[in-house]
């Protein structure tokens, strides 16, 4: 097809056997259409056999499509043009649905902003909502491993298209082993040498939020609503972009005349369902993306009364009890648990308790940049998932605060937050917070996580750290744990303590940072959890 500005976009078409006409499913990819995103979904032939014309298209500047690829810049107009073209194909009945994960999910949301008449249903998965806060940064810190890994893939594809063999070989090697020990860890030589092949430098250096970031983001593009389109969003507890997915649900529900539903399951960013529960998983526990979206398309493209829209507007998977919970909305962070300590939370642990301590306490953490606290589990790339972080919590540069063992099961389903009184002996510092379940067998499984970078002059008292939503039922005998540290590497760059930008910070520049965590008395640090269920 040709876009409105004359660029040729290439696609593969899969058609059902039979007379038709048929609804069309459109998948627009930045990773190359010949893979058909079979890492996340069934092959398009599976959908064609079930009565759909399937179009798998290379976005601008990817695969064999013409143009230059700049992430998200052209997906609004190109996506709307692709929907209109797909609706006009021979065998089409004039209605279109879109699907896809990650970038392909964002491409769906951006196409919605043009309100293409033929688009009736979308199923964006693991997509997010705002490019700056969901893809490039979190809590003011650059998403180092996640952003670097994707940039290397983008650069390798650009080098392949240009037949730049030396660049392609070097970039593939970097993909297989991220160059995080480079002289400038956040801007390694391979990305400096081949900066022309991708967007990484722009993302690393462009200030935000707002400005040019808004021009790329569904959050800004869809501020006027989406009309009569039925939206099924799929989020993952171990996907880095979950917070944006939840924000998108609120915004789309308020600005949509169709049906809007959100499912959050135990998926990581690759769409893999990972097991963290107490019992052995059953195949029926977690439906596939294919089963979920086929039911949605059968309901809203073919009109079958299959009940795909039934249940609560929000359905959450309980990662420990392994069951689904339907909710009308996410419960707020309303139940406070106060941090309490004798000053040795990094040695023998502190406590989480319902009442605030009358007497003030002080816990001291020393962040050593030569041996940063590693990324372990949760949503943070590269080690996302329900990883046991007991070893990490035993480090002397991690402060832990536990509840007493539970006397009855405790269900936490909704939003979470942290308000912490913290200061440091450096103008800039990081706070990494992880909320975990301490199980009776000794495992420490992350349930929620947050990261915040304090820039020079940016301290707030108390300092808010945004934690992710969660859904888990802790069994009797287990406990909740809050872990605090000054780093989470390589998910986020090591803070050098100087206030320098990550792309300008050398390994040798980073200095030890002492964090002072206050609680009790006039400075009560506290964790806020969804009301107990």
UniProtKB/TrEMBL annotation:
Keywords of this entry: Hydrolase
GO MF terms, alphabetically ordered: hydrolase activity
InterPro entries on file: AB_hydrolase_fold, CocE/Ser_esterase, Galactose-bd-like_sf, Xaa-Pro-like_dom, Xaa-Pro_dipept_C, Xaa-Pro_dipeptidyl-ppase/CocE
Domain Xaa-Pro dipeptidyl-peptidase C-terminal span(s) in chain numbering: 294-528
Pfam families: Peptidase_S15, PepX_C
Domain of life: Bacteria
Region of interest called Disordered, as start-end residue ranges on this chain: 372-391
This protein's record includes keyword Aminoacyl-tRNA synthetase: no
Record's protein name: CocE/NonD family hydrolase
Species of provenance: Azospirillum argentinense
Taxonomic classification: Bacteria, Pseudomonadati, Pseudomonadota, Alphaproteobacteria, Rhodospirillales
């Amino acid at each position: 097809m040709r876009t409105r500005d004359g660029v040729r976009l290439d696609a593969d078409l899969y058609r059902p056997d039979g007379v038709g006409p048929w609804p069309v499913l459109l998948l627009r990819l930045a990773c190359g259409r010949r893979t058909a995103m079979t890492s996340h979904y069934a092959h398009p032939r599976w959908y064609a056999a079930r009565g759909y014309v399937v179009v798998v298209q290379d976005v601008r500047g990817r695969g064999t499509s013409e143009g230059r690829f700049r992430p998200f810049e052209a997906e609004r107009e190109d996506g709307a043009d692709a929907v209109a073209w797909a609706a006009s194909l021979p065998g089409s009945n004039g209605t279109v649905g879109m699907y896809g994960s990650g970038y392909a999910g964002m491409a769906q949301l951006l196409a919605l902003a043009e309100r293409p008449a033929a688009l009736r249903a979308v199923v964006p998965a693991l997509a997010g909502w705002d490019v700056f806060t969901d893809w490039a940064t979190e809590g003011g810190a650059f998403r180092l491993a996640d952003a670097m890994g994707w940039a290397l893939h983008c650069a390798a594809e650009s080098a392949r298209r240009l037949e730049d063999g030396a660049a392609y070989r070097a970039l593939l090697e970097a993909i297989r082993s991220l160059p995080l020990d480079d002289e400038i860890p956040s801007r390694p030589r391979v990305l400096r040498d081949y900066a022309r092949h991708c967007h990484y430098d722009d993302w690393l250096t462009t200030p935000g939020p707002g400005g040019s970031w808004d021009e790329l983001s569904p959050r800004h593009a869809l501020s006027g609503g989406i009309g009569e389109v039925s939206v099924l969003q799929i989020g993952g507890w171990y996907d880095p972009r979950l917070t944006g997915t939840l924000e998108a649900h609120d915004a789309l529900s308020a600005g949509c005349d169709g049906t809007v539903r959100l499912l959050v399951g135990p998926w990581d960013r690759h769409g893999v369902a990972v097991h963290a529960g107490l019992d052995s998983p059953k195949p029926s526990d977690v439906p596939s993306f294919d089963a979920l979206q086929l039911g949605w398309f059968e309901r809203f493209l073919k009109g079958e009364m299959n009940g795909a829209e039934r249940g609560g507007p929000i359905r959450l998977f309980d990662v420990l009890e392994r069951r689904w919970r339907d909710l009308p909305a996410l419960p707020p962070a309303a139940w406070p648990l106060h941090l309490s300590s004798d000053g040795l939370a990094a040695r023998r642990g502190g406590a989480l308790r319902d009442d605030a301590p009358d007497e003030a306490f002080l816990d001291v953490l020393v962040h050593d940049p030569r041996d940063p606290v590693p990324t372990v589990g949760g949503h943070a790339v590269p080690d996302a998932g329900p990883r046991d972080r007991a070893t990490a919590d035993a480090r002397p540069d991690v402060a832990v605060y536990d509840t007493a063992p539970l006397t009855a099961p405790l269900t936490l389903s909704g939003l979470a937050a942290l308000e912490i009184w913290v200061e440091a002996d450096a103008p800039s510092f990081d706070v990494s917070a992880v909320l975990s379940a301490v199980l009776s067998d000794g495992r420490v499984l992350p349930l929620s996580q947050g990261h915040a970078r304090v820039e020079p002059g940016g301290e707030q008292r108390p300092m808010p750290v945004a934690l992710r939503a969660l859904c888990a039922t802790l069994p009797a005998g287990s406990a909740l744990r809050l872990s605090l540290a000054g780093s989470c590497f390589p998910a986020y760059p090591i803070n050098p303590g100087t206030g320098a930008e990550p792309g300008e910070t050398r390994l040798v520049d980073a200095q030890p940072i002492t964090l002072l965590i206050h609680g009790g008395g006039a400075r009560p640090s506290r964790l806020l959890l969804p009301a107990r269920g």
